[in-house]
Amino acid sequence: MSDVIERSVGALRVQIDRELCVGFADCVERAPEAFVLDGDDLAVFLLPDRTPREALLAACDACPVDAITVWDEEGRQLVP
């Protein structure tokens, strides 16, 4: 698996850097429908499309090691 995984979620581009992720699971706690920890205890996407935008942004922003980055439709970085 690549060290960086990315998804388009509505107008957002969400990227998880698995080299930075240490498995604290703050994103999972905030949005369990969007993220899960895999067998390596690293964050992966579950169903982020089913997560309201503000809840998804809050879950991404909760990462204490900034392993999740979010850009809007115009390329502006929203998180971290």
Explained architecture:
This protein is 18% helix and 31% strand. It has helices at residues 26-30, 53-61; strands at 4-9, 12-17, 35-37, 43-45, 68-71, 77-79. The protein is globular, with a radius of gyration of 11 Å.
Question: Notable features of this structure?
Answer:
2 helices, two-stranded antiparallel ribbon, 31% strand, 80 residues, Alpha-Beta Plaits, alpha+beta
Widest sheet, order of strands: 1-2-5-6
Question: What oligomeric state do the depicted chains represent?
Answer: single chain
Low-pLDDT residue spans: none
CATH topology: Alpha-Beta Plaits
Q: Write down the domain tally.
A: 1
Strand content: 25-35%
Helicity level: 10-25%
CATH top level is Alpha Beta
Q: Count of helices? A: 2
- How much is the radius of gyration in Å? 11 Å
Mean pLDDT score, rounded?
A: 96
Distance between the amino and carboxyl termini: 24 Å
* Gross morphology: globular
Order of helices and strands: EEHEEHEE
Number of strands: 6
- Structural class designation: alpha+beta
CATH architecture: 2-Layer Sandwich
Biggest sheet, in brief? Answer: 4 strands, antiparallel
